[in-house]
Write a structure and sequence with these properties.
Helix content: 25-40%
Oligomer: single chain
Shape: elongated
Largest sheet: 4 strands, mixed
Strand content: 25-35%
Order of helices and strands: EHHHEEEEE
Structural class: alpha+beta
């Protein structure tokens, strides 16, 4: 399978990078690198993550993967043999982003 990054997901990754860059630019780069590296497992094991119970969509089964030592939550679904990342990314505490 292959990962497909939705435009909104890539925008969210940029937002995450910008957020952490204000604190520590090298840490921001590390987080973005880890997002891409840690989601690579989905290409070989797309159902490794548990079903996301908080999204009620009858036709699509969403799954969630916690990344970057618990800092980022990726929600994705599988369609036509593609992994469609990323429905939602999270920032620490109150800085959640929804797409």
């Amino acid at each position: 399978m292959r990962r497909i990054w939705l435009d909104d997901a890539l925008t969210n990754i940029q937002t995450i990078h910008n957020f952490y860059s204000a604190l520590n630019p090298s840490f921001a780069n590390k987080i973005v690198k880890e997002i891409f590296e840690e989601t690579a497992i989905l290409e070989n094991y797309p159902q490794i993550a548990p079903v996301e119970l908080y999204i009620e969509e009858k036709k699509i089964e969403f799954r969630s993967l916690i990344l970057v030592k618990g800092r980022i939550k990726v929600i994705y679904y599988i369609k036509n043999n593609n992994i469609n990342d990323c429905y939602r990314f999270g920032l620490p505490a109150k800085y959640f982003l929804y797409t």
